[in-house]
Amino acid sequence: SQQGEEDPQALSIQEGENATMNCSYKTSINNLQWYRQNSGRGLVHLILIRSNEREKHSGRLRVTLDTSKKSSSLLITASRAADTASYFCATAPLNTGANSKLTFGKGITLSVRP
Amino acid sequence: GAVVSQHPSWVICKSGTSVKIECRSLDFQATTMFWYRQFPKKSLMLMATSNEGSKATYEQGVEKDKFLINHASLTLSTLTVTSAHPEDSSFYICSARQGFQPQHFGDGTRLSIL
């Protein structure tokens, strides 16, 4: 399997509900990042959580990281139709150098119904 | 801040021609740039990593003579798909990073080879 696998693969919710997306990975990491991609567009960086952090908030986003379980979750509270997009987790390897590469998961398609 | 411009956003060309895609960091100096390829509803596949003034490092399975990368300055990297064929049709995305900061992505280039 691929480093950085998200679940569910697709999520459909009603506007105003919370959306929770999960990511699992296999190797030790320096940090984990979440990105958003609107259809046909590039990726937008949402939030980065370091391996020594357990939780981080940014506006309506809440990210958790459990290094013992090698998993992370992204929670979007009070979702809006504009949150409809694909969400990717990406991991940076433990030995991070100047050329360190991110490994992306397969992505979660979130649909928020108005 | 941290804007990455990718051009063109969409290109259609005949089989056998070469296509150049530009990636520019508009408001920061990109010490490292990355080129990705994305198939429909799939994750990003890293093709190569480039540092300003040095040769790109290609991922396994990516033909360096097919996908020429030039990172001539701290604000510009180019990807040239040489002698493009229909199987090269895809969505190509660049990202740029300054030092150890998160990667910032361009909006992607949809390449269609007829």
Number of strands of chain B: 11
End-to-end gap of chain B: 37 Å
Number of strands of chain A: 11
Rounded to an integer, what's the Rg of chain B over CA atoms? 13 Å
Question: What's the short version?
Answer:
Chain A is an all-beta fold. Chain A has strands at residues 5-7, 10-14, 19-24, 29-37, 43-50, 55-58, 61-66, 71-76, 85-93, 103-104, 108-113.
Write up this protein:
The complex is a heterodimer of chains A (114) and B (114). Chain A is mainly beta and 114 residues long. Helices cover 0% and strands 56% of the residues of chain A. Chain A has strands at residues 5-7, 10-14, 19-24, 29-37, 43-50, 55-58, 61-66, 71-76, 85-93, 103-104, 108-113. In chain A, strand 7 and strand 8 form a beta hairpin. Chain A starts with a strand and ends with a strand. By secondary structure, chain B is an all-beta fold. In chain B, strands 2, 4, 5, 6, 9, 10 and 11 form a seven-stranded mixed sheet that branches. In chain B, strands 1-3-8-7 form a four-stranded antiparallel sheet, with no helix packed on it. In chain B, strand 4 (32-38) and strand 5 form a beta hairpin. The mean pLDDT of chain B is 92. The chains are: A mainly beta (114), B mainly beta (114). The A-B interface holds A 2, 33, 35, 40-45, 48, 88, 96, 98-99, 101-102, 104-107, 109 and B 4, 6, 31-32, 34, 41-44, 46, 49, 51, 57, 91, 93, 95, 99-100, 102-108, 110.
What tags apply to this protein structure?
heterodimer, A: 114 residues, mainly beta, six-stranded mixed beta sheet, B: 114 residues, seven-stranded mixed beta sheet, four-stranded antiparallel beta sheet, 0% helix, globular
Helix and strand arrangement:
The complex is a heterodimer of chains A (114) and B (114).
Chain A: E1 5-7, E2 10-14, E3 19-24, E4 29-37, E5 43-50, E6 55-58, E7 61-66, E8 71-76, E9 85-93, E10 103-104, E11 108-113
Parallel strand pairs in A: 2-11
Antiparallel strand pairs in A: 1-3, 3-8, 4-5, 4-9, 6-7, 7-8, 9-10, 9-11
Chain B: E1 4-7, E2 10-13, E3 19-25, E4 32-38, E5 44-51, E6 57-58, E7 67-73, E8 76-81, E9 90-97, E10 104-105, E11 109-113
Parallel strand pairs in B: 2-11
Antiparallel strand pairs in B: 1-3, 3-8, 4-5, 4-9, 5-6, 7-8, 9-10, 9-11
